[in-house]
Specification:
Radius of gyration of chain A: 22 Å
Strand order of the largest sheet of chain A: 2-3-4
Strand content of chain A: 5-15%
Number of strands of chain A: 5
Oligomer: homotetramer
Largest interface: A-B, 89 and 89 residues
Structural class of chain A: mainly alpha
Largest sheet of chain A: 3 strands, antiparallel
Shape of chain A: globular
Distance between the termini of chain A: 53 Å
Chain lengths: 258, 258, 258, 258
């Protein structure tokens, strides 16, 4: 079999290097968030870039056992106490376009909008208006807006945008999402930018590709999933969860035909 | 259905709190590693505790595509390009007692050894000698010693023990593992303490329960798995992997019996 | 890399053979249950053996969305609509010693009991009495007895034992479990043999190893999990599930220490 | 929490019913394949329908350890010996549009083609020609044609089409795929209908929705994955797999910037 190629890790008997950086140098001098940035971007972050990624990861880390990811992890811990990995993995599996995936979808929307603004020499606000109109005409929800718990405002958004602006790292991504917010208000809709929309704007400005919008959710949420799985093991008995169920199908077959 | 209980997250329309700490305060002022510590221990770490956890997570983050976790993730990415989560989850599933689980097993061994030293009023070195003898008598490998790539020394161990000692955080855990190392040498075996043994010693000294030895591997390695999955999507075609296979079973059945 | 060895499948450009049997012969002349038996035993079953395995697989196929496996699968379908596989896999992950694993544990118990009866030249009933006493002395539940829904009798047990006996395939496995049932009654406990206990007895008598007790549950239940995932996709919106949660942890930290 | 609704299973203390059929009646009188059909279609199959589904499931059951699904399962078994479920689940995760998903994509293609033939009052052959032209103009591969091992003919196709025709169950689905085959030949391309294309045609004719094209692959392949996982546990040591890796990234960073 041909060897698998990678540009990420170089490991031999003496050293491990991540994109050329010796892990032994990283361990005492850098943070885990530096390493996450390095693994995904191929270079170490500046102090401000790291602080933004820290804020994003902390903002995503846990939202309680009711989220599908943590709930799935706890159900697996309920039936299978042989493998912590199995429970954490089930939590990861619940992360998709519908749960934790809005950041990635929003990064794609931003990238398209910003490209169009440039290509057509229109303002970012005008491009955002077109984006909002197009989604609304199709009856589609805009990714990065609205939250099932935080109805009127997602307080994490202001924190992230404030940090990005103070560090001088807010660029077209943040500008586009704020223009989307304005275009929504012009259209009479008050649906706040949620954390997914905020992190999407910032990750675009930090130069990450859209897939990272989903991967950063996975990396951040695994911290919370693993803590919730540990709590389930510690505090709860196996098989304690009983979901109430109601049958609404066919009536009993009196004589199953043979 | 009775509500599920949790002591980790309190989320409502206005705020999200992790063990009482407002996420909005954590995001701009704390690091992701602080959040990981908080989620698993219920309190924020000191600066030195955080630095140790950073070093551990970075030391675990990636060891290349040949490790079962990253290899499984890439195989899933090869057959299923619809879900980044599916690929990352498969990588997590490969983490068990045999891969990434030595830290947890070693924490249990240390805890038993340290307890016995206290209960029997013997020195930690004497307790370590007994542990080494017992494992060797049973023909079992000691967890936290040896590595399939780093044969003679795992260079990450010295970094971690150095940091713990410099910060005054090395206690019975580190003492016990160094005693195990000495007892092995007395027995004529040169098998180095690997990163799992080193992090186990430190996590015991930081007060973490054994399960965290496996969870910290999952949290750290997910950073690398996700980067490797992103690379697989970017650089490789689906279904590019062909594992060579050799059949050594029954010969063809000439007339399958009906 | 050395080729991976297997004794199960021989596939080349012209044919696929399972333990020597040409798939093209199996497809029109045999059933899927024959193939399952063949894959796991290395030979095709007799008609009666196949009928017993069919009955076991049908008995395990689905128990409704409240079981942890189906519930986890539905939660993953709720958050991740990009991958049917992800949802089915999450359901599989919930299968462990606590959910679906009793068959495997019971097969090990039967094997030990039957061995002891032979080794010590005691009756199977006497061996079963010893097994019951030992479990009760340790405060452990006996695998294969009791069910959280079917309290007094698991009606699937009589069907399986009846079929095995009618076919002349009931042997020491069935004998041992019926002796366990008798020993429990002698001890004043009325806890019925459940389907896991029944299938364990029969699979021992058919010559399967204990691991198959868990694998047969996975194979059977995947039929139900996949049907429930399809129903979730068809009938329900993403993110429809809201698990009620109650926080019982630390009070809010008024000023998070910096 | 509102109860979850289902039309599949009705389970109470006394009975379990699948779409109205008592499991106690199904167990001794029906096969597992009947149960799979019942769970997914809501009714029991005829004898010929069952035989076709048996042939499909057997045709999919295993293709050796080199397929991504079985390879991923074995890698997980290599690192995590605590959970058979984890290994099987990893195998399921590798099933996606690229591996095992062609049946589902092909069912969608057939459904669109057959609808167009009706809507536009053109022959099925003409509709198939349009489909082939459209895919080729877009540079897309047609689902259900070609195989990486069986280059010139997938022998499983003739078996399935022969059975369907003999039973009088071949209808528009089979007709459309044979028309696609003819249209490909007219275009000078000899790419055989593979098992995914064959089962897609038949499942359309049996009235299954496209999602079942992927679910049937999962159900069938789980039989093989589980047998391969059992073999890995029995015959191989943990961590035996070493994928060869070649680094082609950045050179070592001599002094990591602090």
């Amino acid at each position: 079999m041909d060897p698998w190629r990678t540009a990420i890790v170089q490991a031999d008997h003496e050293s491990i290097r991540l994109h050329g950086h010796d892990v032994l140098e990283l361990m005492p001098h850098r943070t885990f968030t530096d390493t996450i940035f390095l693994l995904h971007r191929g270079r170490l972050p500046s102090r401000d870039e790291r602080a933004l990624l820290d804020a994003i990861l902390t903002g995503l880390a846990d939202h309680g056992p009711g989220a599908p990811s943590c709930a799935a992890a706890r159900l697996v811990a309920s039936g299978n106490r042989q493998s912590l990995s199995a429970a954490v993995a089930a939590g990861v599996l619940a992360i998709g376009d519908e749960h934790g995936g809005a950041g990635s979808l929003c990064m794609e929307m931003i990238a398209r909008g910003v490209s169009r603004a440039r290509a057509e020499s229109i303002s970012v606000l005008e491009a955002a208006r077109q984006t909002v109109s197009a989604y609304r005409a199709d009856g589609r929800r805009l990714p990065g807006l609205g939250h099932r718990v935080h109805h009127t405002v997602d307080p994490r958004t202001a924190v992230l945008f404030g940090m990005a602006r103070a560090a001088g790292l807010a660029a077209e991504g943040v500008e586009f999402m704020e223009a989307v917010d304005m275009a929504m208000k012009e259209a009479g809709k008050i649906i706040p930018i949620n954390i997914d929309g905020a992190l999407a704007a910032i990750l675009v400005d930090l130069g990450f590709p859209p897939a990272f919008g989903k991967l950063v959710f996975i990396i951040g949420r695994v911290a919370g999933i693993s803590a919730e799985v540990a709590e389930e093991y510690d505090r709860e008995k196996p098989m304690r969860i009983r979901i109430p169920v109601e049958y609404d199908g066919l009536p009993p077959v009196v004589r199953p035909g043979e």
